[in-house]
Amino acid sequence: MARKLLLEHINVPGINTLDVYRQKGGYRSVEKALKTLSPDDVVEEVKKSGLRGRGGAGFPTGMKWSFLAKPEGVERYLVCNADESEPGTFKDRYLMTYIPHALIEGMIVSSYALGAKTSYIYVRGEMMPQIRILEKAIAEAKSAGFLGKNILGSGYDLELYVQPGGGAYICGEETALLESLEGKRGNPRIKPPFPAIAGLYGCPTVVNNVESIAAVVPIINDGGEEYAKVGIGRSTGTKLISASGNLVRPGVYEIELGLPVEEFIYSDEYCGGIANGKRLKATVAGGSSVPVLPANLTLKLANGDPRLMSYESLSEGGFATGTMMGSGGFIAFDEDQCIVRNTWNFSRFYHHESCGQCSPCREGTGWMEKVLHRIEHGHGKMSDIDLLVDVSKKIEGNTICPLGDAAAWPVASAIRHFRDEFEWHVREPQKSQQTNYGIARYAEPIASGLKQEN
Amino acid sequence: MLKVEETQPVEFSPALKAKFAEISSRYPEGKQKSALLPILHEVQAELGWLSANAMDQVAAWLKIEPIEVYEVASFYSMYFLKPQGKYVLEVCRTGPCCLVGAEKVMAHIEHKLGVKENEVTADGLFSWRGVECLAACGFGPVLQIGPEYTFYENLDEQKVDTLLEELRKK
């Protein structure tokens, strides 16, 4: 069995209550941090751990914390990003549902490290049940003296609140989240200034993902160096992977970074293979925004070595033959799935979720959705395929926030790897309405001389 | 585009206003606009949707301009600017759920209820719509029903039938 740092006790009955959580060693990190460590010591441990942001960007958490400005007499804030909305990702919902105190405990230690006296957990509004769970956990922690004034006699005060969102993918982008928390539309801000300088209410602010905050608990309990021993290379620690799609056992798995992708998909400890005895056609390894890969490139690198579940290995080969870790939303497609249909579906998602601030994204996502819709429904032209590539290139890099890139990459990568399937849809407008293109060569061993990006 | 329907005047109950006050106390002095999204959820939970009158009253309570409420209510997908059925079935229509049959579930709901997306059944009980990813991809197809946003997971046609029957009996 692989090491579990976050979900070790997830199956213990009553682990969602403070009593059981404490019996299993919960809130030790709060006692350790507040009684024996200075805030800077905590930051130092997180830096040593090599923890990278678990929301999608993979930026080192300790470094993000060390950028926080600390002017005299100005409030600082920690905001937890629980606006989990990336298609394919459901790990934070799982963690908050079953082991909410792991997040509360992490929030207390992290807030202490950053000198925040008020912290917010911004939860997407649809997760009302999870909001209730967190509010209950906060009340329990407060009555046990882990929140409020003079926590554990340390002189440190902290209030923690849960804030519901209103249903907008864009609010997972940290500056849009802050706008939303201020009671406004979720339009991302132009950076700089970064939130570390001017965030919530113009004050220095750190925004971290649920899983990143929860990971601070084992880091403080065992020390940053111990945490860094788990994992592989610069991908330290464990990662929650949300597995969905055509798998025997979809669900949330905690893996040690560095696990071979093949083992993750096929071993009985994890997903147990492809459902209904079918073959794997493609995967989206890190949430809908990352490039889609055919089965052969999912399991192996272009040079034939096995691909691993780590930040480096998943992105090996760049966008020509690789993808990204992203949020760890692992979506598997079996041989009966249509890549064109799925790409259209994702494009509709990004069009729906674009905040509308930047015209390349607002207009471009709509164009991509329309063009993909007509290809999927048998009205496409051969020139549409290059038109899609062209539109995606005009969005990428030309917007205030990364939603534009996130909308462009799935389209560009689908055409890069599955162009023959798009062409087949155009050539066979009727047949493509009744049958699927199938698996073609996507699952075959990697052929030499992959098509170069032009 | 914002289209708000006219309705009867709205009066918030003292209990609701007490809730507004509790929510507003979570933010620093002068930053009470932060309470807007949670307050709109409370209002919608009580009234079923957000009428122009309701939004105007929220604006007055928070001492902000009505447009500041309209622009927020129309930006976020959870707020209803039109009356809905008593139960709004919101089915996830995004990629991972579609891989495991969400489109079939939606077609079945449309067929069973006999109304198109965003329409209300004649008895006023149900409306339905497709929504984007609900962060439950491993348990798809899923749907949620407000105002507590209860999740119904691993749906198929039979489970939808059972759910509709249970809701009708409530």
UniProtKB/TrEMBL annotation, chain A:
Its cofactor is [4Fe-4S] cluster; FMN. InterPro entries: NADH-UbQ_OxRdtase_51kDa_CS, NADH-UbQ_OxRdtase_suF, Nuo51_FMN-bd, Nuo51_FMN-bd_sf, Nuop51_4Fe4S-bd, Nuop51_4Fe4S-bd_sf. Its EC number is 7.1.1.-. The keyword Secreted does not apply. GO terms for molecular function: 4 iron, 4 sulfur cluster binding; FMN binding; metal ion binding; NAD binding; NADH dehydrogenase (ubiquinone) activity; oxidoreductase activity; quinone binding. It comes from the Bacteria. It catalyses: a quinone + NADH + 5 H(+)(in) = a quinol + NAD(+) + 4 H(+)(out). Residues 340-385 form the NADH-ubiquinone oxidoreductase 51kDa subunit iron-sulphur binding domain. Transmembrane segments: none annotated. Keywords: 4Fe-4S, Flavoprotein, FMN, Iron, Iron-sulfur, Metal-binding, NAD, Oxidoreductase, Quinone, Translocase. The keyword 4Fe-4S applies. Belongs to the complex I 51 kDa subunit family. NCBIfam families: nuoF_fam, PRK13596.1. NDH-1 shuttles electrons from NADH, via FMN and iron-sulfur (Fe-S) centers, to quinones in the respiratory chain. This is NADH-quinone oxidoreductase subunit F. It comes from Pedobacter antarcticus 4BY.
From TrEMBL, chain B:
Binds 1 [2Fe-2S] cluster. Keywords: 2Fe-2S, Iron, Iron-sulfur, Metal-binding. Belongs to the complex I 24 kDa subunit family. GO terms for molecular function: 2 iron, 2 sulfur cluster binding; metal ion binding; NADH dehydrogenase activity. The keyword Membrane does not apply. InterPro entries: NuoE-like, NuoE_dom, NuoE_N, Thioredoxin-like_sf. The lineage of its organism: Bacteria, Pseudomonadati, Bacteroidota, Sphingobacteriia, Sphingobacteriales. It comes from the Bacteria. Its cofactor is [2Fe-2S] cluster. This is NADH-quinone oxidoreductase subunit E. [2Fe-2S] cluster binds at C92, C97, C133, C137. Gene3D superfamilies: Glutaredoxin, NADH-quinone oxidoreductase subunit E.
